[in-house]
């Protein structure tokens, strides 16, 4: 499929060619344009908070009507990839996905189900003597595997995940494709361990120099910190995690039911 060659010009994105590009294929033209622009956003050609091409520039680049352009932009806006400011134009959104804390699921599988692109970069993988707080969470593991991963959402860094597993299990997890698979999936499918529940503690912390270098953001920006202990179906602690999420790019949700108070006698 031919694509319009759009490049940055100052703060705007403008067509680089004078002649329009022609679309082809069975899908509607607005869907084809949305696909092209979506790919450029995911590839980082259009960066977060960067101004997108104007409607007129897109009309010229793709040789389509304004209605078609607006349909394409509407698709991207409904997906949360762009936002509009009246009188100023259209801009690329910073990814701000959410994960439901009401179910025990891996980050990657939860995000992919919602249509996000995600992968991980393994920063380190080693066997260590656990610090005291890790030993307490895992209840006397003598040696643990420490796994540090940088998680990406739509190709932008979103979190630093530090996981601790008993070494005999951690060595089996280390053989898996940790770039594209969740540890939960490896534990259940490769190690045949049934997971049961998790205990979580959540708070806000200030970004350290290390976190800023990995996740980006400004000095002093808030980081969402989650401490999580994963238990097997038999109730035994299996994995301890320390998760650091960009506060401006991710959120969690949980469904809470009100319990009817007991009648007082």
Q: What is the makeup of the main sheet?
A: 6 strands, antiparallel
In percent, how much strand structure appears in the residues? 25-35%
Pattern of helices and strands: EEHHHEEEHEHEEHHEHEEE
Calculate the mean pLDDT score and round it: 84
Number of strands: 12
Shape: elongated
Q: Total helix count?
A: 8
Uncertain parts: 1-5, 7-19
Rg is 23 Å
Which structural class is indicated by helix and strand composition?
alpha+beta
Order of strands across the main sheet: 6-7-8-11-10-9
Distance between the termini: 74 Å
Helix content: 25-40%
What do you see in this structure?
By secondary structure, the chain is an alpha+beta fold. Helix content is 27%, strand content 34%. The protein has eight helices and twelve strands. It has helices at residues 29-42, 55-62, 66-78, 107-113, 132-138, 167-174, 183-190, 209-215, and strands at 6-9, 12-15, 82-85, 89-92, 97-100, 118-128, 144-153, 156-166, 195-206, 222-232, 237-246, 250-253. The strands form four sheets. It has a six-stranded antiparallel β-sheet. Helix 1 (29-42) packs across helix 3 and helix 2 packs across helix 3 (66-78). The longest helix is centred in the N-terminal third of the chain and has 14 residues, at 29-42. The protein is elongated. The protein starts with 5 loop residues before the first strand and ends in a 12-residue tail after the last strand. 28% of the residues are buried.
